[in-house]
Every structure is written in structure tokens, then in C-alpha cells.
Amino acid sequence: MQVVLFDMPLNEEDARKIAYNVIRSELGSIPYPGKPELKDGIWIVPIIVRYPRILSIGDVPEKVRFMNFENVGEIKIDANKGELLYRPRYYEVNNIIKENLEKVRITVEMALVKVGANRFAQLPFPAHIHSPVVDILSWLLINDKIDMAKDLSLIGVDDKGKYVQNINLLESTGLIRKSENLILPSNNLIEIETRYQTLPEKLSSSLAFFFEKGYTFIDSIKQVLGPHLTITGFCYEKSLEYGDLIPISYETIDRIVADVYRQEVKRIKLPRYLIQLETVGLLEEKIMSGKVVWSGTEEIFRKIQGEEEILQPVRRFFA
Predict the structure, then answer these.
(1) How does pLDDT run across 49-97, given as a tens digit for each residue?
(2) How far, in Å, are 163, 225, 226 from residue 126 at the CA level?
(3) How far is residue 275's CA from residue 122's CA, in Å, rounded to a whole number?
(4) CATH number of 121-224
(5) 50 CB contacts (<8 Å, ≥6 apart)?
(6) Which of 13, 238, 273, 298 lies 20 to 30 angstroms, CA to CA, from 47?
(7) Which fold has domain 100-120+226-319?
(8) What is the rounded CA–CA span in Å between residue 48 and residue 100?
């Protein structure tokens, strides 16, 4: 971009105008310049984004909310000459926006897992058969201990690494402990074993404990919960953006599942996932204008809103 040099030092408004022109010509219509700051003869103008989110009731657009992403980049201008010294590339700004959106998604999922731990743990276990967390807890509940050298010896190197990683996560939540080459139940798992009678109850309660105490290990938890967490996380994230529970159409949820998993086999399982999530009280089916829609529950939504410590890092993003 050609920048006109000034005959006299730039004031704040001049700097803002130059930044505005750079943004419009190179970054599009959504970003805009923030308040310029003069440092060592250089005007530094932050780039701010009010990211639009179209919120729909069912399939009908209801309103547009804006997520505030501050300082997604900055423009530097020579205060004496008016010369453009630096501006970020389009892809750099776009990547920061994506990172912020991902941060919001992960944060909402963490809050959801923490407050909905007991309900997630009630989901049918066949959907979780590839999770090392479930395998480890199940093994200990039946066989009392894991011999790292013997019991993991037949697992491939890559899979063994995943089991070791999840053993460390379970240890950090106080469910298991290490004794030389053995993995043993720790106090919290022993207490759960004592409190419940059947193995399914013990496993479900162990998972609930892991979700509630280990919600920050969201990647590992997603290995356990898979599409169930993807679907509920999306529904509650939209409600947080809207400021209240918002019903979402089946078609919208279907598109999210398709975008995340990109496998038709997952999409055919969507009705089953929705029924299971309603069964454990994480989602509700409603009829709106003669059409079935889905939303979170009032109880879980209010609990998520109350998780201020978890949500605080992304609160500023919501207008």
C-alpha cells in the first residue's frame, strides 16, 4: 500500500486514519483501529475485531452478536514521516481470530465437563471403548493392579505411550498411584469402590470424579466423550454467546458433527447421541413452530455461567 508522507509530525487522528486505510485495503471490513499510542517516535495502533456471530432460533436468524477480540495485531507508523513501518498479514490476523475462537470453545467445554461430570459419566460405555482412561480404570477395578512391564508389554509403542500419558493424568487427579513398576488404586478410587456395589457404578463414579477434577485435561477427556462433548459444547457455547438458552436445529448440529469428524458414519449416529444426551439430562428436545429443536438444560447452563474462574479468560470476548 502506498502511504503519503506528512510534512509535519502525525497526531493521533492522523495515525488512526492511516491505520484505518491499511486495514480496509489489506485486512477487510471487520477489523478496525484501536486507540493509537506514541512510543519512541512511533505510533502503535492496535487492531481490534468485533467478530460477528449470527445466532438463530432453530433455523431462523434471530440476531447478530459480536465477540470482541482486542489486539489481534498492530500497525506501526513513523510519527515524523507518516511512513508505514509494519502491519500484520491477513493470515496472521486470521490465525489469531481462529485461536481466540478455539480458546472460547475449549473453555466452555472445560466448564461443561466440570459441572456435568456426573451426567457425562452416565453415558453408555460402548461409545468410549477406545479410551485408555476407561481401560485403565476398568482393569484396576477388576484386577486390582497394573504391572507396567507385563500388562502393557503387548501394546504397540504408540498406544503404550497413550496409556502411560493417561496413567499420569489419572495419578494427578488422585485416582491411582504408582509403586515402582505397579499402578494401584489410590485413596479416591478406593473410596469409590467402597461406596458403590456394582462394577458399572464404580466405573461411572470413577469417570465422574476424573471429569470433575481433571477438566483441564480436555483433550484426554474428549477421547472419552467424543461427539457427546462436541455436540453439548456447541449448544452451550451458543447459549453463552446469546446470553440465555437458545434452541438449535437438528440440521445445525448435524453440520457441526460433519465439520468436526468428516465421516458419514458419525452422522448416522447423531440421533443416538442426542437421545443419550437427553436421557442423562445434558440436552432437551423441544418443539418450536412444529419443528424439533435441541437446547441445553437450565440447570447445567446456570452452573456453567457460575464457573467464573474457568470462564474469566474469555469473558471479555463476549459483547
Answers:
(1) 988 776 666 566 666 777 888 889 999 999 988 889 999 999 999 999 9
(2) 19, 11, 12
(3) 13
(4) 1.10.10
(5) 30, 32, 66, 67, 68, 69, 319
(6) 238
(7) Arc Repressor Mutant, subunit A (1.10.10)
(8) 13
